[in-house]
TrEMBL record, chains A, B:
Record organism: Psychrosphaera ytuae
Protein name: inorganic diphosphatase
InterPro entries: DDH_dom, DHH_sf, DHHA2, DHHA2_dom_sf
NCBIfam families hit by this protein: PRK05427.1
Known cofactor(s): Mn(2+)
Gene Ontology molecular-function annotations: inorganic diphosphate phosphatase activity; metal ion binding
Catalytic activity: diphosphate + H2O = 2 phosphate + H(+)
Superkingdom to which the source organism belongs: Bacteria
Length: 308, 308
């Protein structure tokens, strides 16, 4: 029976590509391991897998009785629902430390860098295993995605160096150009149901007992939302009620202007206003410089809930 | 203001030596960091610090407003009481993943090896920093202590290789001989109050809402306990009541015979009997091969509580 590698619910490119990259590394090291996913792929991730010739990883929601590596998260609400009945062999992640616990020692590679794949590259280097060309390409795209082509405040020197090294292995001359091509795919929102857009990159967080769902759409020009922003906001409201969430937030991130508009639905807007020191206008506010959910949106909100 | 490195309450040699080793590494990398401790040193740890010329790290219980690295644990009950008011920069550990969480990304090096210092050695190698002779000696002793001179089932090839490399740096010809000398110091129990013995290497665990305290005394011959085993057991009983614990357990480990006698005081002995598939006789049982609290004692007990 092989081991599994799985990323978070509503998988993004980092979750999928790191599952592929880690399973190859572990298998090469003599531990048969296969990549899996907890949900449907985004257009961006499909673009990456097609570009480098990968199949979609197996859709697998239940892990009872299995052994697995967790990538790109360490929060229980983001992982498999029956994780308590599985054996966690390790966690590779670049977020805050969540509430997953284990009953036996394990392997954790957690670093404050821009992308899980940057850490997986460190693991390849540690074990002195060569990265195949196609895997290097997918890893590189995941880093460009998570760091918004190096523009996100989460981006570190390690991420930039890692992209350079992976581009060389993959034989890609201009990583940034490929990154822009990828973000244009990501910006395509026509003919997509509102709910699909809201959930395209959506994560739940348990903040001091309050369930908070935060989605993010990163696009090259925020104007594409103009004609249906009200519909997005309405769907965010429905999502909050259906999931008994305290709040739902959607970040509309303009990667060229380097900032985000927040759409907010909350049972107590003052917590959100306090967290970011802003005033909401009709549940909306533009904040300059906000690009990272992980680094700029979650920590202040978690603190605001903690202090309540 | 410097950062701190601190190990668990009732510090063992691994917690102290890894705090010393990590603070030197971080300081060398340009991040002023000092080692601290949450409690008194054991005779074994004092022996190591004297042997290699170190001062005792600062006794520091409160970390509110400070930034710190956590070593040799990730369980809240084992760490500083006011950890929620501190910033956790990283965790270096070799135990099960505990319930410490953070609100921001951090650095975690957690590996299923025999000792935290084995992981710290990997960090020195990663950053290409030379380990000073005296620090190498202290790290080496901590690994010999945690792995019971390689006899513990927690000991891995990585630990053995690490001791070899550190011995070479420290200029020590026979690490095992030094290890035996150290365990003889550890075995000296005359004129020690019962409570001091019970708490010498004692850890609390939150097992599915139940507080369980587990101590361990590793000696070269269990016969030294014969004359006061009843007194130890009585003190264990008192300790359970004072701390409102579900159970207290003391492992008397014979490192030559490679097994442990368990002294148990519990509000429900059947959980412990089920966990280890044994029958307690007057709250005691010898179990062949049990040497590691972390690998052989905690996981089955945690599972037994989980399944209750
Ligand atoms: Mn990621
Ligand atoms: Mn240890």
């Amino acid at each position: 029976m092989p081991n599994y590698v799985v990323g978070h619910k509503v998988p993004d490119s980092d979750s999928i590509c790191s599952a592929i990259a880690l399973s190859y590394l572990k298998t090469t090291l003599g531990e048969p391991t296969v990549p899996a996913r907890l949900g449907e792929l985004s257009p961006e991730t499909k673009f990456i897998l097609e570009r480098f010739g990968f199949e979609e990883p197996e859709l697998k929601l239940s892990y009872a009785g299995e052994s697995l590596y967790i990538v790109d998260h360490s929060d229980r609400v983001q992982g498999p629902d029956d994780i308590d009945d599985a054996t966690i062999l390790g966690i590779i992640d670049h977020h805050k430390l969540g509430d997953i616990t284990t009953s036996a020692p394990l392997e954790c590679w957690i670093r404050p860098v821009g992308c899980t794949n940057t850490i997986i590259k460190m693991m390849y280097d540690f074990h002195d295993v060569e990265i195949p060309k196609d895997i290097a390409g997918a890893m590189m795209c995941a880093i460009l995605s998570d760091t918004v082509i190096f523009k996100s405040p989460t981006c570190t020197t390690a991420d930039i160096k890692c992209v350079e090294a992976l581009a060389e292995i993959a034989g890609i001359d201009d990583p940034k150009e490929l990154g822009m091509e990828m973000f244009k795919v990501k910006s395509a929102v026509e003919d997509t149901p509102m709910r699909d857009l809201v959930l395209r990159d959506f994560k739940d967080f348990n903040m001091n007992g309050n369930l908070v769902g935060i989605g993010q759409l990163e696009v090259v020009d925020l104007a594409i939302f103009d004609s249906f922003k009200d519909d997005l906001h309405a769907d965010l409201k429905a999502l909050r009620e259906e999931g008994n969430r305290h709040s739902t937030i959607l970040l509309l991130t303009d990667i060229m202007k380097e900032g985000s508009e927040l759409l907010v639905v909350s049972e107590d807007e003052s917590v959100i206003e306090k967290a970011y020191d802003v005033k909401l206008d009709n549940g909306r506010v533009w904040i300059d410089g906000i690009m990272s959910r992980k680094k700029q949106v979650v920590p202040p909100l978690q603190d605001a809930f903690g202090a309540k």
